[in-house]
Amino acid sequence: MTAGPESELRDKVVIVTGAAKRIGRAIALRLAGEGARVVIHYSSSEAEARQTAADCGGAPMVRANLESVAEIERLFAETLRVCGRLDGLVNNAARFTRFDPLAITEADWDFIHSVNLKAVFFCCQAAARAMLPTGGGRIVNLSSLGGIRPWAEHAHYCASKAGVIMLTRALAKAWAPQITVNTVAPGVIPFDDIDERGRRMMAATPAGRGGTPDEVASAVLYFLKSTNFVTGQSLAVDGGLSQR
Fold first, then answer.
1. Which of 69, 163, 167, 241 has the fewest CB atoms within 10 Å, counting from its CB?
2. Res. 198 pLDDT band, cuts 50 70 90
3. Which of 78, 34, 29, 30 has the alpha carbon at shortest distance from 51?
4. Is the pTM of this model over 0.85?
5. Quick check: 206 pLDDT over 90?
């Protein structure tokens, strides 16, 4: 993707991690609607990934366990083999658990950070290695309201998402001006499994409601289409909740 006026997405190759369902699916569908060549990454949700790929016009699918750097490298190698190049990356895949901080074990910590932070870095690294020789591209990392505001029973998760925000800023400096790196921080995006705590957060949101996956996707597309003068930024899509 080149600098200058707003970049178009038509025929751009963009990997979306965790694209089988929820927010990742919404992002993939919007990208396909813009004419991008979306690569559907998934880990275990194969049936949902196949449906998303079909709904994106027969998009290629690549399965990879993001806990493994070797599998991350295979994800990018397969994308380059099939598509010939890489123009963008959306790091959407993430995990979420809830524990009293006194009860968090090493395994609990690693379960979250291996995907939420470690994998984000190594996906960014693999993307940059593919994009820098061809002129650059766009990276968008999904962080969270939990990376902006502290949640007592999600210390490990909050730390991982705050790490994504700072990682985004550091990589934006490292790879400018060829690659922009930005982050979108969703607030409460309700799905069928939302709990009472989530409903209370929705009630406290100044917008008076939860958000939608498509609203998050709109923010992601903004960064993917922007010039290289927009980089290192974090955009909260949270109905104003981070300001309360």
1. 69
2. confident
3. 29
4. yes
5. yes
From residue 99, how far is each of 143, 152, 154 by CA, in Å? 19, 9, 6
CA distance 11 to 84: 12
Let me know: does 9 contact 34? Beta carbons within 8 Å. yes
Q: Mean per-residue pLDDT for 3-17?
A: 80
Question: Which one from 157, 172, 216, 221 is the annotated catalytic residue?
Answer: 157
The yes-or-no answer on residue 222 being catalytic is no
